[in-house]
């Protein structure tokens, strides 16, 4: 019950909806990068950048860490992001800029 109280008090469900939109807005331009096959977002506070070359996923996750971004390789060459609900829009923009920098 305490967890439910926190979810309600801090409006975490509303924050996840805001974060969903922010992730979509800031990550979608990455789809134009030649190393990116697709950006998946718009379903909750989770997003993925599908790399054109699936073999790059694990090395790319390591490169992201050098840019201060935590993600994980998932599926066939995707890099998944699952930020906290309290991440600000500015932090999402900073994360997207870091991903772009890691893509080179």
Description:
Helices cover 47% and strands 16% of the residues. With 104 residues, it is an alpha+beta fold. A four-stranded antiparallel beta sheet has the order 1-2-4-3. A hairpin with a 3-residue loop joins strand 3 and strand 4. The relative contact order is 0.19. The mean pLDDT is 92.
Give structural attributes.
4 helices; alpha+beta; 104 residues
Q: What's the arrangement of secondary structure elements?
A:
Elements: H1 2-9, H2 12-27, E1 36-40, E2 47-51, H3 57-66, E3 72-74, E4 78-81, H4 89-103
Antiparallel strand pairs: 1-2, 2-4, 3-4
Q: How many strands, which pairing sense, and closed or not: the largest β-sheet?
A: 4 strands, antiparallel
Structure class: alpha+beta
Mean pLDDT: 92
Give me the number of helical elements: 4
* First-residue to last-residue Cα separation: 46 Å
Strand content: 15-25%
- Per DSSP E runs of 2 or more residues, the count of β-strands stands at 4
* Rg measurement, Å: 14 Å
Strand order of the largest sheet: 1-2-4-3
Low-pLDDT segments, ≥5 res: none
Order of helices and strands: HHEEHEEH
Percentage of residues in helical conformation: 40-55%
What form results from the Cα inertia axes? elongated
Offer a quick outline of the entry.
With about 100 residues, the protein is of the alpha+beta class.
